[in-house]
Amino acid sequence: MTPGTHLEQLQRHAIPNRISIERGHGGLDKIIVRTDQSTAEVYPHGAHVTGFQKHDEPALLFMSRSSWFEPGHPIRGGVPIVFPWFGPREGAPAHGYARLMRWDLCETTATPEGHVRLRFKLPPSTAKNEGPEAQVHYEVTVGNTLTMELGVANTDASAPLTFESCLHTYFAVGDINTVSIRGLKGVSYLDRLDGSARKVEVSDSIRFNSEVDRTYQDTTGPVEIRDPSLQRIVRVEKSGSHSTVVWNPWVAKSRAMPDFGDEEYQRMVCVESGNVADHHLTLKPGQSTSMKVVLSSRSI
Ligand code: TA6
Fold this sequence. Notes:
Layout: H1 3-11, E1 19-23, E2 29-34, E3 38-43, E4 48-54, E5 81-82, E6 104-110, E7 116-121, E8 134-142, E9 146-154, E10 161-163, E11 165-167, E12 170-172, E13 180-182, E14 188-191, E15 197-200, E16 205-206, E17 212-216, E18 223-227, E19 232-239, E20 243-248, H2 250-256, E21 268-275, E22 281-283, E23 288-299
This protein binds 6-O-phosphono-beta-D-tagatofuranose.
């Protein structure tokens, strides 16, 4: 199907003064959302939220200036959807295939409260070896906050569906050296930089002076990113998620990523909500589950 017809299909979902469709980076289709309090951008490529900004604040999400915007590559920044596995996998794309596929935009709604809601559906997996049939929906609601909800249903007649999922959110910060993260004290985590050794978070507020790559487990509470440089606190609330991943690539890994600027680690931190590792999920035929993340911010 030629991209033009994709664009024409998307245009059907435009809403005057709320939703417009245009060609984005790399010629990929881009959905632009405007509300009275904020703006947002979503690419059907990966159903990838690449931007969210309240009118009176700096952008909430980080986007790499070196990101690829092309089929077969994930967008670097914003909110990559990790499904159906987290992390590397031999002979398969890291973090699963969902962020590499073009999702179908099923519905757009301008709510009476002034919010805008987009609903996407992951097309059935093209590769036969992707395992049991699943239906995956993703709903993005834009207003004074950004809400994202990932729903997974096992539509296979007989096989169980086992998967990991994560909203791999990149937050924009003014200066990583002054940022701190609160809400994880006492939570056990897998330290990916130490052979996934199990450790316990001892500090009230996590600071950054080198690469950090931790998968916190058994944690369902809110996490806050305190950013004195941008004079704001970003709050990550979630439901249906038992894992929180905290990541900053720091210098060496930044230089090793071709789609990430060498110095960009200073302006971002990932706080990712999902169900990974011990918290992978298994759905029986007919069962479904959903995970919701609400991002908000306040001045300090
Ligand atoms: O969520 C942290 C992490 O798993 C890191 O280990 C790093 O690999 C990051 O994700 C980025 O992964 P990506 O496949 O998007 O380059």
